[in-house]
């Protein structure tokens, strides 16, 4: 039996790392592109000091629930670190859901508060969902209904910064009774 040369193993290892790092980069770029398509979100990209992007946050629960996701933090459009989102909740909840989330920082103070190490949203924080708009119409000629599945075509609620932060959520799939961002905890790790 012949042994595989070390150079060949190293080559494929580097190739695999390159491919996976590009897939991760695409995941963040794709998520940012989805949010940029929303008329409600675009002004925040133009004026924010920075933002945190979570391509996928998984959430589920039956009475006791939880959410988890990883993301990147950008300071003036450059990556400044990574961040982990965690949430544990108890109460009436049922189902599972996946969503993308973006948090904009209005100024340096809000950015530094979020990236200070451990940060947590209180229960009064809310997010604007930019995914679905639905309409129904009934007339003497029949009825029709429609739905918008993308942020570019849906109508979103107007939002503004609260305590220097604005949060938007884009639903990816699932169904869950209970949708809140209050109680989310974040752990920031700076890029070295």
Descriptive notes:
The termini are far apart. It contains three helices and eight strands, in the order ααββαββββββ. Mean pLDDT is 74; it is low at 3-24 and 132-157. The protein has one domain (6-190). The strands form two sheets. Strands 1, 2, 3, 4, 7 and 8 form a six-stranded mixed beta sheet that branches. Strands 5-6 form a two-stranded antiparallel ribbon. β5 (133-139) and β6 form a beta hairpin. It has helices at residues 6-36, 42-47, 108-114; strands spanning 50-75, 78-105, 118-120, 128-129, 133-139, 142-148, 165-177, 185-190. By secondary structure, it is α+β, with helices and mostly antiparallel strands.
State mean pLDDT (0 to 100 scale): 74
Q: What coarse outline follows from CA principal-axis ratios?
A: globular
Task: Specify the helix fraction band.
Answer: 10-25%
How far apart the termini lie comes to 43 Å
Which segments are poorly predicted (pLDDT under 50) over 5 or more consecutive residues? Answer: 3-24, 132-157
Q: Total helix count?
A: 3
Query: How is the biggest beta sheet arranged?
Result: 6 strands, mixed
**Estimated structural class:** alpha+beta
- The domain count comes to 1
How many DSSP E strands?
8
């Amino acid at each position: 039996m012949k042994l595989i040369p070390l150079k060949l193993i190293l080559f494929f290892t580097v190739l695999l790392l390159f491919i996976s790092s590009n897939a991760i980069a695409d995941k963040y770029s794709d998520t940012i592109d989805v949010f940029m398509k929303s008329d409600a979100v675009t002004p925040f990209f133009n004026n924010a000091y920075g933002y945190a992007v979570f391509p996928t946050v998984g959430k589920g629960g039956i009475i006791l629930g939880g959410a988890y996701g990883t993301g990147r933090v950008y300071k003036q459009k450059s990556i400044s670190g990574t961040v982990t989102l965690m949430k544990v909740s108890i109460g009436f909840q049922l189902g599972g859901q996946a969503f993308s989330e973006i948090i904009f920082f209005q100024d340096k103070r809000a950015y530094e508060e979020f990236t200070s190490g451990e940060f947590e949203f209180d229960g009064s924080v809310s997010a604007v969902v930019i995914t679905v708009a639905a309409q129904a119409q009934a007339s003497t000629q029949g009825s029709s209904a429609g739905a918008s599945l993308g942020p570019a075509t849906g109508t979103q609620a107007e939002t503004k910064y609260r305590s220097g932060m604005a949060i938007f959520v884009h639903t990816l799939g699932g169904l869950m009774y209970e949708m809140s961002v209050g109680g989310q905890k974040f752990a920031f790790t700076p890029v070295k």
